[in-house]
Amino acid sequence: MKKPTLMNPILVLLFFSTIGIKAQESWIDNSKHSGLIELNTDYPFKVLVSNDTTNNTTETLKNMNNAKLYFDKTFQTNLKFAVLFIENKKWNTYAYFPPPGLPQAGSGNVILGLDKSIVSMEVEKMLKKLPEQHLGKLKSVYGNNIDLDLFYRETLSIHELAHLYHFKEGTKPQRKWLQELFATMSMYAFIKNNCNTCYDLMDTYPEFMIASGDQMAEFKTLKDFEEKYVQKLTPQNYEWFQMQFYKTAKSIIDSKNDTVLLKLLHFLIRTDLDKTHKLSDIELTSRLTEEVGKEMGDILTNWKYK
Ligand SMILES: [Zn+2]
After folding, report:
1. Residue 15 above 50 pLDDT?
2. Of the given ranges (4-13, 196-205, 289-298), which has the lowest mean pLDDT?
3. What is the percent of the chain where pLDDT is above 70?
4. pLDDT of residue 22
5. Distance of alpha carbon 171 from alpha carbon 65, whole angstroms
6. How remote is the CA of residue 272 from the centroid of ligand 1, in Å?
């Protein structure tokens, strides 16, 4: 008869924890990595670039790593993912969708621009047409030339990373506005609590856009956002929605701090459309109120445009 040893349970444990790591790593879509150059870093995530002569990734990676530490702790996990930096001319080969340079995330990858993003270029062009007196605050935060990649890349990369924490467990949320709000609330909470130097970069451009009013938005209801989303809204109208979500996220995190985030993550996962039926607006309002908090349930009720 074989003598039982202490080693066996340990081996079994090791075996299962290896499976755990494998399962996590296999969620990363490696097909996006072929042809890219891997950078040597001390970070716990893989970093790949489409060109290793452009050296503008240091600050972004430091922030991504700090955000990972914060999100892992907040969401009680250790998320595996890869960060890809892609030049505009190679964007369509590696990214999931346009426009070149605008952060996006999916299947374990965060995809960021290596060049100036097309969106930043367009918006900067538009801003330069405005009278000088409107630009003072933007210049004091984004520099005299108003470099909006400090918002579109440095800030939105954190929003995209936050998406991966729910994408890992489900990609069909009850509402798209709810997943966008989750990512923006997570981004806002991380920057507010852990990245003082990033706060103005995150806050100034959205506040500027919010103050400029609603004339950019043809569609304004949450139903419009669900039906039209990225594909059927103009970029300005899509951005208008994201700015409203920013305003909402800011007020919720400022009043509740970050305790709401884990509850909201679990809610997104629990009610993913792969697991449950589509809730009506009334059902969603009451379940959000019960399972996440009143301030979340109130969003549908209080949305200014019906
Ligand atoms: Zn998003």
Report:
1. no
2. 4-13
3. 92
4. 45
5. 23
6. 16
Q: Tell me what pLDDT residue 77 has.
A: 97
DSSP string for 110-153: EEEESS--HHHHHHHHHHTTS-GGGSHHHHHHHTTTT-THHHHT
Give 268 Cα–ligand 1 centroid separation in angstroms.
14
How remote is the CA of residue 160 from the centroid of ligand 1, in Å? 6
C-alpha 218 chain-centroid distance:
25
**Mean pLDDT calculated for residue range 237-259:** 95
Which DSSP state fits 85?
E
E-only strand ranges, the chain = 37-38, 46-49, 82-86, 104-106, 109-113
| Residue 18: predicted pLDDT | 42
**Which of 273, 104, 226, 246 shows the shortest CA–CA distance to 181?**
246
User: Does pTM top 0.90 for this prediction?
Assistant: yes
Query: How far does the centroid of ligand 1 lie from the alpha carbon of residue 27, in Å?
Result: 19
Spatial CA neighbour of 48 closest among 27, 19, 77, 28: 28
Distance 14 CA to ligand 1 centre (A): 36
Ligand 1 centre and the CA of 168: distance in Å?
14
- Tokens 């936050």 correspond to 162
Q: How far is the CA of 136 from the centre of ligand 1 (A)?
A: 29
| CA pair distance 182, 255, nearest whole angstrom | 16
Residue at 303: amino acid letter: W
Residues 251 and 302 sit within 8 Å (Cβ to Cβ): no
Cα-Cα-Cα-Cα torsion 46, 49, 53, 58, nearest 10 degrees, comes to -50
Q: Which one, of 188, 171, 208, lies nearest residue 249 by Cα?
A: 188
